[in-house]
Amino acid sequence: MHHTVPPGARPLRKLGFLTIGLFDEADPRRGHESTLEIIELGEQLGFDSAWLRHRHLQYGISSPVAVLAAASQRTRRIELGTAVIPLGWENPLRLAEDLATVDILSGGRLNPGVSVGPPMHYDTVRSALYPDTADAEDFSFERVRRLLGFVRGEAATDFRGTEGFEVFSDRVQPRSPGLGDRMWYGGGSLRSARWAGENGMNFLTSSVVKAEPPEATRSEERQEEGAQGTPDFAAIQLSHIRQFRAHHPDGERARVSQGLVVIPTDSASAEQRARYEAYAAARLPRTAAPQGPGRLLFAPDLVGTAEEIAERLHAQVAFREVDEVAFALPFTFEHEDYVQILTDIATRLGPRLGWTGAQ
């Protein structure tokens, strides 16, 4: 099936998907097993990458690095990513060891995505997480910089050499040399886009952005206001992508992956279609205006035939600037639903976006 990509749009080079890996508290193994099976299916369908969300003290994957270690032994080609590990919960040195280990086990397929800031509900969890250092913890970009340094081989100590029979390194071991180039920052603001660019990371942009006026000079970058004065999601996302690339050493070639929720219905049953449409409709009101004190703006979920979704994506200014995606699977669906959605994305939607399939 051959489809033409509209002028001005980049053909899709890398097709990925993102899942949260929900599970039942009474039977957590089943949910984790389902996630591993979905990743195996993704590889069979030719997806370039599979990404896991990260949830703490919830019924979703709390240890994506451990789950991806398991996935690395069940797959041989598909890239494996996290979107994203919130670093406020992590010790950067220990995390660097885990990431390098899984990267080596996978043969260099790991794409760690991270973000920074205080842990969610910090007031309720601080005494469990950082009983002695809660007020001293640094949740700024410096925490990401430390992780990047350790992953990229910066010294972690000034001690190295042999002590008795044991040999010590001054750098995190194992070393996985390519991993430093496969680190992603999950950002939703101009500030994080710029920081990620300046620090040579790749950039993950999702279905949530901060509603802030873009730093625009050229008229087509200016934020379009909708009829009710609502900021335009795609215009804001476009400003983040351009900000990132403007500050990245690779410029226009710097890697950006977009992660919207897409639900193609081509091979869905009538019952599935009705459920998908109800899911999207329930989430639509939050897309009408910026939400909460952070003024977060959500993109609508895209439900419809592959042809309809491709049309809507090609009409979106931010999508036209990227050639990699990690489409997010809805949180609360059944295993069979994910199989249908992934199959339609790979066989019907991907080709309409110019994707030729992983070799």
CATH second-level architecture of the largest domain: Alpha-Beta Barrel
Mean pLDDT: 94
Tally of individual helices: 10
How much is the radius of gyration in Å? 21 Å
Helix content: 25-40%
Distance between the termini: 17 Å
Q: Main beta sheet, described? A: 8 strands, parallel
CATH class of the largest domain: Alpha Beta
Count of strand segments:
14
| Number of structurally distinct domains | 2
In terms of topology, how is this protein built?
Blueprint: E1 14-19, H1 28-44, E2 49-52, H2 64-74, E3 79-86, H3 92-105, E4 110-115, H4 122-129, H5 141-151, E5 161-163, E6 166-168, E7 184-186, H6 190-198, E8 202-205, E9 208-210, H7 233-247, E10 256-258, E11 262-264, H8 270-283, E12 296-298, E13 302-304, H9 306-314, E14 324-328, H10 335-352
Helix pairs in contact: 1-2, 1-10, 2-3, 3-5, 6-7, 9-10
Question: What do these coordinates show?
Answer:
- The chain has two domains: 17-26 and 37-46 and 187-359, TIM Barrel (Alpha-Beta Barrel), CATH 3.20.20; 48-177, Luciferase-like domain (TIM Barrel, Alpha-Beta Barrel), CATH 3.20.20.30.
- The protein contains ten helices and 14 strands.
- The strands form four sheets. An eight-stranded parallel β-sheet has the order 10-8-7-4-3-2-1-14, covered by helices on one side. Strands 5-6 form a two-stranded antiparallel ribbon.
- It has helices spanning 28-44, 64-74, 92-105, 122-129, 141-151, 190-198, 233-247, 270-283, 306-314, 335-352; strands at residues 14-19, 49-52, 79-86, 110-115, 161-163, 166-168, 184-186, 202-205, 208-210, 256-258, 262-264, 296-298, 302-304, 324-328.
- The model is unreliable at 216-228 (pLDDT under 50).
